[in-house]
Amino acid sequence: MKIATWNVNSIRTRLEHVINWLQANPVEVLCLQETKVIDKDFPLQPFLDIGYNCYISGQKSYNGVAILSRSPLGQVSAGFAPILGDETVGSFDEQKRLITGLIDDIRIICVYVPNGSEVGCDKYEYKLYWLKLLQQYLEVALDKSPNLCICGDFNIVPGDLDIYAPKASANSAGLSVPERLALKEIIELGLNDPFRKFTSEGGHYSWWDYRAASFPRNNGWRIDHHYLSLPLYEKATNCTIDVSPRKLVKPSDHAPVIVEF
DNA sequence: ATGGCAACACACTGTTGA
């Protein structure tokens, strides 16, 4: 089984790329982020036509997540509130950043972690609190599901090997100590990064800035990840970043990442 | 230090992204 994640930076703009990619790479599950479209305008039919069930949670202009799956998902829900309750979550589900469903006995969670903008600003504080909620959410989810795969755009560079210029970017959102600590605490719930099971060297990235010829220079960041509970991690046979869609005309700034088990 | 590129909306400029 292959489970892929891809921040598409607008599903309507990237529709042809995603359809073509799925036809060439018929993964069981594709998790999408930054769909940037309200649910009634999501282009469902092209995905139904090629055999994917669609589960979507979108909003106007920003954010938005979706899970596409060859077989129907069970127990689908969006946002933190179905697990954590309205009182804990407050207004944090207004931004559509999490959707989940069950395939076989595997809990799939698709996330778009906030960007954070600049260290110390309101959006950065929002990101840190959002990560706290995610941690609480995962504690419950892991308790219920021994087989769990969370994947998406984490907007955090886990280690200095995961970015082309760690020192120059050290003060950027995505690298700060509190963000990395928040991710570490999430991982320590019992999750594992399958990319690092198979690849120990640096130079492998999933996002490249549109500006300054970042992609041809491979000036990238590895911020799109899967995290697997131990039973799944042990079964993982491969985890790769497919850079080919990033080479197309009008690409997303992110590349898809695929785990196989 | 700054800007560069792309997508979107109460659109031709401002905001967001990472």
TrEMBL record:
Active site: Y112, D153 (proton donor/acceptor), H254 (proton acceptor)
UniProt-annotated site: Transition state stabilizer, residues: N155
Residues noted as binding Mg(2+) in the record, renumbered to the chain: N7, E34, D153, N155, D253, H254
UniProt cofactor(s): Mg(2+); Mn(2+)
Source domain of life: Bacteria
Coiled coil regions in record: none
Keywords: Hydrolase, Magnesium, Manganese, Metal-binding
Family: Belongs to the DNA repair enzymes AP/ExoA family.
Name of the protein in its database record: Exodeoxyribonuclease III
Species of provenance: Tychonema bourrellyi FEM_GT703
